[in-house]
Amino acid sequence: MNAEQDFESDLPERASDEPSLMVDVEGFEGPLDLLLTLARQQKVDLAKISILALADQYLAFIEEARKYAQGEYAAALYKGAELSAAEKAAVAKKLSYFTGLGEDYLIKADLRVTLSQFRVELKRSAGLTTGRIDARFTGYTYDLLEENAQGDPEGPAVGGAFTALINAYNHDELKFGRDKVYHNTNGAGASWNWKREQTGPRRFFPGAPNVEGDLAQAMITNPRLLVQVENGYFDFATPFFATEFTMEHLGLPEALQKNIKEDYYSAGHMMYLRDEDRVNLHNHIASFIDSATQAK
User: Fold this and answer.
1) The domain 211-296 is classified under which CATH number: 3.10.450, 3.30.2310, 3.30.2010, 3.40.50?
2) For residue range 171-224, what is the model confidence (pLDDT) as tens digits?
């Protein structure tokens, strides 16, 4: 490819109406993916871009998505069959802006796309599946007509390194397990006992396992109990917004709600994959331990 070739030919294909997070910082205005592509091609010097302004817009976009999910989107889903075609189209347009999925696809999904559907649909045109544990990872999709994701590309990308590391640590440093095989995952979840005994009134029918009540009771029993949650913005296994919702619906007294602290990373479920995030995680946990153990 000629180095003088117009940079636009190197950009990922994008439909004219496909949404993208727009950024407006000194030296650049346009879609975020375009900025990153130009930076990779050395067409834009990131040193001249205000990273602080970029971070502010990134966080503002996340907050905008929060408010929409809590407000207009929740109200639209609540309407169910009473939602008009015009209202559905408007919601699909907004969801497309936040998710990157096509409006027509969202309408066909009745505005309710499952995680597995989302992961295979987002980059279907590129033949890629998006990661579940970490959405920054993508992998090739074998069946491009598949409705649901066929696997998680994050696992093969990092699993080998973690398995080799833990084996080396166990065998060489701890002198343990030389005669054992370490499995970083073995599908044991299928045989777990998912039942959770429900107590109290109106517990005739069994429900899904839910330990929110146990956490709330523990915090009420011990008012000094502190809880810290580490959230990755790219984590689809335990999404940060679902965690926020859970923590905000424990039914705690107002005085105890402040005992819950949440930290955030531009990472997935394993936020320690990048050194800078690993350092931040260490510092957050160390600070939490210090605050929880200091004299009261």
Assistant:
1) 3.40.50
2) 999 999 888 877 777 776 677 777 766 665 555 555 667 889 999 999 999 999
Q: What's the rounded Cα separation, in Å, for the pair 134 and 250?
A: 27
| Confidence class for position 293, pLDDT limits 50, 70, 90 | confident
pTM of the model: 0.80
Strands 128-130, 138-140: pairing is antiparallel
Cα four-point dihedral sign 272, 273, 277, 280: positive
Question: How many C-beta atoms surround the C-beta of residue 98 within 10 A?
Answer: 16
Q: Determine contact, residues 155/185, Cβ cutoff 8 Å.
A: yes
Which pLDDT score is estimated for 184? 76
Nearest to 21 by CA among 72, 73, 56: 56
- 3-state SS, one letter per residue, for the chain: CCCCCCHHHHCCCCCCCCCCCEEEECCEEEEHHHHHHHHHCCCCCHHHCCHHHHHHHHHHHHHHHHHHHHHHHHHHHHHHHHCCHHHHHHHHHHHHHHHCCCHHHHHHCCCCCCHHHHHHHCCHHHCEEECCCCCCCEEECCCCCCCCCCCCCHHHHHHHHHHHHHHHHHHHHCCCCCCCCCCCCCCHHHHCCCCCCCCCCCCCCCCCCCCHHHHHHHHHHCCCCCEEEEEECCCCCCCHHHHHHHHCCCCCCHHHHCCEEEEEECCCCCHHHCHHHHHHHHHHHHHHHHHHHCCC
- Tens digit of pLDDT for each residue in 80-95? 999 999 999 999 999 9
